[in-house]
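Section 3.1: Structural characterization of target chains.
Under the original work plan, the team committed to producing a structural model for every single-chain target entering the pipeline before any wet-lab resources were allocated. The record below documents one such target. The sequence was received from the expression subgroup and is listed exactly as submitted; it comprises 285 residues.
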Amino acid sequence: MDSQRNVAAGSCRSRTGAGHMRLLRAGGIAAFVGFAPLVAFAQTQGSSGGPAPPSPGAAPTSPAPTGATPGLAGSPAPNAPRDTRDEDVGHRGQVNLRVDFLTGYRMLFRYDSSPRCAPFNPQKTAEDQQKFCGYGAAPALGIALGFSLVDIFEPFVFARLGLANEAAETNRGKMVQIGGGARIYAMSNSPFKFFFAPWLGIDLTSGPLEPIGSGAPGTPGNDDGRANVKPGSYKTDLLAHFDFGPQYDFSKHFGMYLSGGMTFQMVRYAGASAELAFGIQGRAP
């Protein structure tokens, strides 16, 4: 009987001890679950708050300036706006000087009173000499001075000076042309732009270069005499011209361009010249 009571009492104590352990474990889990959110909240508040107060005796530190990269004094912020003023290369308010080299091909139709446009052909009479002519134009330099009222509109005056004469075909001296016109720009504020340039002018090229009837056979003066060219044939001519092409401005003050166009004349001859020019332009201020 005693042994049975001892076994029963031990069993009751064992069950009671196991129950106490389960209660302790359940309490620990509940405490952890309850305090874990509080700890996380405290950590969040500590990280999102302002900087920690300085320790006693520490020197105060000044905040980094706005737009500066930490550790690099004076460095601009990576996302700072870029200055784009230098990219505007419009010509508004600038005086400009252009110099170009030009050449081309002339196509001339002679009136009865026109000078020759080809060497004299001894197989034909003076009246039957060539009426329509085509030949390579002598090279020339062009100089133009202009001022841009607005970016897209650039009026100018110009002079064209021949580098060689065309005496063999016409007994004329080196080309002299003057006039005025305007350039009209597309994409005027961009470094790469296109222009269209009409102008009106006069042709002051001298003639005859050699006196009519002078010289040996085959020379310009002799050919004029045999073709019955008159001194009054060398009239001042009226010109109408247009050209177009691209221009690239390397800076606000300098650019280069290429142009192709046509020049029409109507007094000395009825004619047209196809022309190609390459040039540079300087601008100020």
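The longest strand covers residues 95-109.
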